[in-house]
Amino acid sequence: MNTPLRRVGLAMMAMILLLLGNATWVQVINADDYRKDPRNRRVLLDEYSRKRGMIIAADGTPLAEVQETDDRLKFLRKYPNGAVYAPVTGYFSVTYGTSGLERTENDLLNGSDDRLFARRVSALITGRDPVGASVQLSIVPKVQQIAYDQLTRKNFTGSVVAMNPKTGEILAMVSTPSYDPNPLASHDGDEQAVAWKGLTAKDNGNPLMNRATSAIYPPGSTAKLLVTAAALEDGKTKDSTFTGAPSIILPGTQTPLPNFNNSPCGDGTTTTLINALAKSCNTAFAELAGQLGVDKLRKQAEKFGIDDKGSNVPLPVAASTLGPMSDEPSLYQSGIGQRDVRFTPLQNAVVAATIANGGKRMQPQLVTKILGPDLSPIDEIDPDQVERAMSAENAATLRDMMIQSEINTGGEGRLQNVQIASKTGTAEHGEDALKTKPHAWYVAFAPAQDPTIAVAVIVEDGGDRGLGATGGKVAAPIGRAVIGAYLGR
């Protein structure tokens, strides 16, 4: 064989190997990713030929169901109370794919999950049409509804997360503005397109984002719970003393760090830790953060799940972080929940729930049961303790300090005969923080001595209070209403 023919032969062999490699990559290695890609309309069309499983609440209320049709797509997805639950359920659209639990639990809902293999074989043998499994959530409708109503009655942008601190079950997960997923599930392409255009418009507030899990905010003074936990674990007590000055200068700078309204704490010279938390004294907590140092703060944060790379509940959750804390000024500012500190609302609920649970951090979970077509249980998800974030004794001390914080917190909606442990936060943000409306936070749990619910509330940009907003005025009434709904008050 002469040289030109040899070269042509080698080139053809190389091309064949490349084609085989590409086919293997697409059809074997990446096949599952392509199959699950929400943009894969061929898979979606196939799924519409099967009855999709339902998404139901803890009490059996359907949040996503199906309706049989006479058109090319045999089944229509329906969301009975769409906007209230959309951040959790997501949408199921032949044009725009899936989101929320419709995406993360798609294999169960469409019947292709490995746990349903025996049922698929049975359906094949008997000639029955395959049916997807249903997923039952921990969401409690009365709690979800009151949280949604509290945010929407004043057109607030924000989020509420409520959890059972003993199990990690998410009792409510609300994000506003929300949206109605029914038009996206329509079989009318024009209706879907109009809805999508409105939902993705730049001035529409990004309703497709689940702020509970995907948005990160400066936590403001709610981060003082983390700093207090680190201090107690380091051997300090509720009676340990720190500066009560109305303002301090950040180390190595000329930048002042003041208390709210430049108010002194304690006697104006010193204050106890319990009083500093109750009065939310910035100067004391900045000094405390400086004493603890970066390593101890970060170690405590990691025990609460902060500075993790993100998790799934099964919705994907953005990572919360303390930020780099690369120098003393940033360490001091991080001690009051500012600078580069960022939490999701779910993360702040986890912090409150962990303290409420005696220092034991539970894995947050939305899905509690997998149900067959007849709604009989196929699988149940048990509570999962991740780790002990702090000792039971120190958690009890911090709980008592949070009770004093609630007593000192203003705002409406106080509950009769219910003792709440809480912490508020008023978080500065933006390039010119003094001229930017602050975010308002409230994290709490109740009943304080035997907690059954923990909540985190954030209202973006001051709600209806503008620059004068505080966590107590704006977010606390919402959190108390949610607690009241769950406790039947």
Account of the 3D structure:
The chain is of the alpha+beta class and 489 residues long. The protein has a domain of 274 residues: Beta-lactamase (3-Layer(aba) Sandwich). The protein is built from 18 helices and 21 strands. The strands form 7 sheets. Strands 3-2-1-6-16-17 form a 6-stranded mixed beta sheet. Strands 8-7-21-20-19 form a 5-stranded antiparallel beta sheet. The longest helix has 27 residues. 49% of the residues are buried. The model has no long low-confidence stretch (mean pLDDT 92).
What is the element layout, followed by pairings?
Layout: H1 3-29, H2 31-36, H3 41-47, E1 55-56, E2 62-68, E3 75-78, H4 82-89, E4 92-93, E5 97-98, H5 100-104, H6 106-109, H7 117-126, E6 134-137, H8 141-152, E7 158-163, E8 170-176, H9 182-185, H10 189-199, H11 211-214, H12 224-233, E9 241-243, E10 247-249, E11 256-258, E12 270-272, H13 273-279, H14 282-303, E13 311-312, E14 316-317, H15 328-334, H16 345-356, E15 360-362, E16 367-371, E17 377-380, E18 385-388, H17 392-408, E19 421-427, E20 439-446, E21 453-459, H18 471-487
Parallel strand pairs: 1-6
Antiparallel strand pairs: 1-2, 2-3, 4-5, 6-16, 7-8, 7-21, 9-12, 10-11, 13-14, 15-18, 16-17, 19-20, 20-21
Q: Can you say what the CATH homologous superfamily of the domain at 214-487 is?
A: DD-peptidase/beta-lactamase superfamily
Number of strands: 21
* Beta-strand fraction estimate: 15-25%
Largest sheet: 6 strands, mixed
Q: Radius of gyration in whole Å, from Cα?
A: 26 Å
Structural class: alpha+beta
What form results from the Cα inertia axes? globular
Query: What's the CATH first level of the domain at 214-487?
Result: Alpha Beta
